[in-house]
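Good morning,

Attaching, inline, the backbone tokens for the sequence recovery test we're adding to the shared suite. The designed sequence is right after.
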């Protein structure tokens, strides 16, 4: 897949310390193995989202000899624990993102430059519950990802 990435912000806010990441993992109920900490540390540098392959490539350029399969496994565990969000936005590869909030939220994803914006407001819960109930379902969760073009990409188009 081809990703056109903006130069904007390589650092995801403040660089998160490994000890802090390990603490978050323990709190989320998963063992903070060295590999998981390294993968999460790399993801924390990403401002938007990244695929396992991208993270693996970046880690390799800094001399990290972690295998691609290990990166995939670490991301799957982190995602299962709810520490990272997965985004699909139409690509074959899953994109991972370390989100600013651990609470339920949604994303706007730019298909032009991969910019990701977090929407903290969820106003579809009620609609989901009602639509599910109408079919005899009890909705337990939902996910929603909105794809489109960000303001910068729209201006460039
Ligand atoms: Zn998010
Ligand atoms: Zn864009
Ligand atoms: Zn929601």
């Amino acid at each position: 897949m081809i990703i056109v990435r903006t130069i904007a912000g390589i650092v995801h806010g403040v660089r998160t310390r490994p000890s802090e990441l390990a603490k978050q993992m323990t709190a989320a109920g998963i063992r903070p193995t060295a590999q998981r900490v390294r993968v999460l540390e790399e993801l924390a540098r990403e401002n938007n989202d990244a695929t396992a392959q991208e993270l693996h490539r970046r880690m390799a350029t800094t001399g990290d000899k972690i295998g691609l399969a290990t990166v995939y496994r670490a991301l799957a565990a982190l995602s299962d624990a709810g520490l990272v969000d997965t985004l699909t936005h139409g690509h074959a590869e899953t994109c991972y993102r370390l989100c600013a909030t651990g609470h339920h939220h949604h994303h706007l994803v730019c298909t032009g430059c991969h910019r990701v914006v977090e929407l903290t407001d969820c106003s579809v819960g009620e609609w989901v519950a009602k639509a599910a109930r109408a079919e005899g379902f009890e909705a337990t969760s939902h996910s929603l990802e909105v794809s489109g073009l960000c303001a910068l990409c729209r201006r460039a188009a």
